[in-house]
Amino acid sequence: MNRSGVRGLTSALVAAVALVAAPADTQTIQPPFDVNYTLNNLGPVPGLPTPYGGLTFLLGDPNTLLIGGAANTAAGEIYSIGVVRDAENHVIGFSGTATFYCDGAYNDGGVDWGPDDVLFLARWPVNEIGQVEWGSTDADKIVDLDPLGVTGGGPGALTFVPPGQPGAGSLKICSWSGGQWYDLTFSPDGTGTYDITAADLRTTLPGGPEGFIYVPTGSPDFPVPSVLVSEWSANNVAAYEVNGSGDPVVATRADFITGLDGAEGAVTDPLTGDFLFSTFGAATDVVLVVEGFAAPEPIEVAIPTLGGTGLAAFVMVLLAAGLFLIWRRYG
């Protein structure tokens, strides 16, 4: 049986055991974090094929979420879904039905925007990273990590370290199920995507890690730079302090949330700093959100070239020019 089959079997066993042995809604934020943070279950994403993969927000559009469907399979795709926000901008639900956004074969817990508006995707169990250029619906580049020495099963997740954090701008990946955490060396390939030329093993995390985020600076109970890691195998979310390079310090691990079913993806809400994460292979795949974090440092978004929403922006410019001319003529 291949690794994908093993994970699928494991998912089924976890779901079966959860149904028999555990009551519903056992997810618990652990002390001391339970004082300042609250956990809400947003439920399943309408129309999204299970199991769920990683998630991120559409570049420049905080009201649209991108999330992997049919994760870990060749039929996997990335979907878009609108989100509903309350008066304080917290995500409280979904709007509409998930629709195809781009190729996401073998998508796993890592979906993140990199330089030049390129979407990077962790691909498991094939031990690859996919890259999709802005406006494209196909994988524009796939990088095989085997020649770079990446082990542990393949990248369960990836994240670019955000501004203001140690190691800002670097690309981190973590293998499932081995937990090997790597810092990747990357550079433009001259065609709009990126070569990945080296993988430096920095540490190894327990719990079968998947998606992870860097905690926004100034968040309560996090006096030093830290990460939150979705631990799929352990059914937890764990907190770690990070060193000056943005890598987790294993000795600082603390339970943040326990009692989950297959914690998978991870993303920070760009408006509120809330932590959103998906589950994979549970009795019902869902998205959950944790409130209480500081708002993250804004990230500058370059105007994309024509294509995708870049084309839409161009059309809006033409519309604005037309309205101005009408005003001049009839105003």
Average of the residue pLDDT scores: 88
Which class best fits the helix and strand makeup?
Answer: mainly beta
Contiguous low-pLDDT stretches (5 residues minimum) are 10-24, 305-331
Count the beta strands.
21
Strand order, sheet with most strands: 1-18-17-16-15
Radius of gyration computed on alpha carbons: 20 Å
- What proportion strand? 35-45%
- The protein's oligomeric status is single chain
Q: Major sheet: size, sense and barrel closure?
A: 5 strands, antiparallel
Helix content, binned percent: 10-25%
Count of alpha and pi helical runs: 2
Indicate the overall shape: globular
Question: What can you see in these coordinates?
Answer:
This protein is mostly beta strands and about 325 residues long. About 10% of the residues lie in helices and about 40% in strands. It contains two helices and 21 strands. It has a five-stranded antiparallel beta sheet with strand order 1-18-17-16-15, with no helix packed on it. The chain has a four-stranded antiparallel beta sheet with strand order 2-21-20-19, with no helix packed on it. A four-stranded antiparallel beta sheet has the order 3-4-5-6, with no helix packed on it. It is globular, with a radius of gyration of 20 Å. Mean pLDDT is about 90; it is low at about 10-25 and about 305-330.
Kindly summarize this structure in a few lines.
This protein has 331 residues and is mainly beta.
